[in-house]
Amino acid sequence: MTSLKKIAACLIFGSAIAATGLAAAQAPQFFRIGTGGTAGTYYPIGGLIANAISGSGEKGVQGLVATAVASNGSVANINAIKAGSMESGFSQSDVAYWAHTGTGLFKDQGKVEDLRLLATLYPETIHLVAAEGSGIESVADLKGKRVSLDEPGSGTIVDARLVLGAFGLTEDDVEAEYLKPGPAGDRLRDGALDAYFFVGGYPTGAISELATSSGISLVPIKGPEIDKLLAEYSFFSKDTVPAETYSGVGETETIAVAAQWVTSAKVDEELVYKIVDVMWNDASRAALDAGHAKGKLIKLETATIGLGIPLHPGAERYYREKGLLK
């Protein structure tokens, strides 16, 4: 081969390698966020975060394509992360703790040892929604009533059972149904249901619409029974839904858990570091503040409270750099 031909061959070979490298560098990396039902709070919050961290965002992670995926909630999201069919998801703090330790709801399934935390997001309030004029003024009044506990696989059903148990009730003491918040609200409006449980940030769209269209009452979750429950389960905390959060509904005492964003220890540390970094930049902050009432409660200074499970190494490195961890 002449020198000229050798040079040409090298140029062609070099160009092919460069093109291949460029294609690989530009290949999108997908990052799914399991949320909840479309009528709840997880889904819109997940959409805001996905838009913020995606590479198409103002200051997103380059090459990352994040999507919010509707699901059955906390338990379903953790199982999807464990199975590798979801890179991350939202979970109630109690469900995440049970999964990682193999206790509570997960005592028969074993530990999800690779479950890791990206951030604690905001308080999730336990709503006990009743039909207006139902006469249900306490959890104890649910006995013999038609009550939806949410779908199997959701975090809500776990907490509903604990709340009922605090008052000496089980599913056998009520006419239990297992519906998502949207269908449960429809049945309440139609007079086919007396009450339903929902765990999520307030205000939630489905309950707001129901309060405006047909009227509701929020049943207080309080009393010595609840004080005992809080002493037994540290992931619960007292909470109050302010008056007129839902049209015509006064201030209501209740309890809450925390919404958390979880992932797998198998997800790359550098990728998680970049995701968490973008999560707390000014553009993401503005999007959260403008996008949803609960978005304003998602703050860097509370991202590491009530952890319950280990932080992902990428997230831990970021929070240590910010001085949030000792």
From TrEMBL:
Residue ranges of the TM segments: none
Signal sequence region: 1-18
Coiled coil location: none
Keywords annotated in UniProt: Signal
Tree of life domain: Bacteria
One Pfam family from the record: NMT1_3
Annotated PANTHER family: SLL1037 PROTEIN
Family annotation (NCBIfam families): TRAP_TAXI
Name this protein carries in UniProt: Immunogenic protein
